[in-house]
Amino acid sequence: MMQRQGSRAAWTVGLLVAATAAWADEPAPVAPEPAAAAGPAEVQRLRVGVMPIASAVDWTGDQPVGVMIDIWENLAGRLGVETEFVRVDAFPALIELATSGTADVALGPIAITEDRERVLDLTHSIFHSGLRVAVRQRNETGFLAAVRSMLSWQLLELVGIVVALALISGHLLWWFERGRNDHSFPTAYPRGVGEALWWIMSTIMTGGCDDKHVDSLLGRGIAFAWMVGGISLIAAFTSVLTATMTADRVTGTIHGPRDLAGRVVGVQAAAVTGPVVRQRGAIPQEFPSINAALDALALGMVEAVVSENQQLMFLVSQASRNSLRLVGPVFESFDYGLGLPPGSPLREPLNTAILRMREDGSLGRFIEEWFGKHE
């Protein structure tokens, strides 16, 4: 019994020794190497679509300048991003940059409307403005200008009809009266027809001619027609002449947005102005830029141009456009912001930055520096 217990104890000790030796032969766990130090985070670079827009964006060499550029640089600094400007020359192309995602931001400014919101993500308003009407102005004075102001195609058409009727009826009157009324209408053709025409003109103006009388039945029928018709002709002449003299010429009949109905109005393609002028009964004619529309206005190709107020104020004040002027009040007010691709992650950061610029007054300072202070 004692021998069996000693054998079991020896076996147990052997197992412990073997286990200790095996643990000692295991390699020690290797400590993980320290991670390499992370480098500086790469600054995000945004592609920003810009288009030359008078008073907002212009180009000096390869770099854009203007109030919208200053505002964007401030926003980019607040967001900690760099900028790569992408230039386009037409407003539809600027919208396409944002809707397609080719650019991260369409600088605009872009009017914030329901239709735009359907295809773009739009930021908070950067500034508030509205539309204005530009027309041609003429400062002609003198006798010839007064005569030209009385002429119109409607008046010339009426004069032509009266002259034609007078010639026809004058020949008929002379034919019916010749040979029996030589004192009033001589038989000789040139003189007789001339006297008949004189009688007709006198009848139109005064209702009759004292030194002439009509004897034949057919001649008296013609005379009665001219006596009655003369009253209507005088009324027609008066109304047409009055309307022509009191209404300005084509460039002067538009005094504001209420006068756009029926007029051909130049607008920028893809801008909000096209639907607006169409709603007011005008006929919009699209141009790639407002400069092109104003050139067409100066040449008389359109009767007015409608665009954003500040932009028109800037362009019309230039010496090369001294033949143009702004008329009427600002109408159809809009808020203007930045355009982003649908679902853009930049929307909230930009909105926050815009609100901060508005609250700290920097947004107003940029606008005042470029446009001046207005009530």
The helix/strand class is: alpha/beta
* Beginning-to-end CA distance, first to last residue: 118 Å
Low-confidence stretches: 1-40
Number of helices: 13
Spell out the helices and strands N to C.
HEEEHEHEHEEHHHHEHEHEHEHH
Compact summary:
The chain is of the alpha/beta class. The chain has a domain at 143-246: Orthogonal Bundle (Helix Hairpins), CATH 1.10.287. 49% of the residues lie in helices and 18% in strands.
Q: Secondary structure elements and their pairing?
A:
Layout: H1 2-25, E1 45-50, E2 58-60, E3 63-65, H2 67-79, E4 82-87, H3 91-100, E5 105-111, H4 114-119, E6 121-122, E7 127-136, H5 143-150, H6 153-177, H7 189-206, H8 217-246, E8 264-268, H9 273-279, E9 283-287, H10 290-298, E10 304-308, H11 309-316, E11 324-340, H12 347-360, H13 362-371
Helix pairs in contact: 2-12, 6-7, 6-8, 7-8
Describe the protein in words:
This protein is α/β, with parallel strands linked by helices and 375 residues long. The chain has a domain at 143-246: Helix Hairpins, CATH 1.10.287.70. The protein contains 13 helices and eleven strands. It has helices at residues 2-25, 67-79, 91-100, 114-119, 143-150, 153-177, 189-206, 217-246, 273-279, 290-298, 309-316, 347-360, 362-371, and strands at 45-50, 58-60, 63-65, 82-87, 105-111, 121-122, 127-136, 264-268, 283-287, 304-308, 324-340. The strands form two sheets. Strands 1, 4, 5, 6, 7, 8, 9, 10 and 11 form a nine-stranded mixed β-sheet that branches. A two-stranded antiparallel ribbon has the order 2-3. Helix 6 packs across helix 7 (189-206) and helix 6 runs antiparallel to helix 8. The longest helix has 30 residues, at 217-246. Residues 1-40 have low confidence and may be disordered.
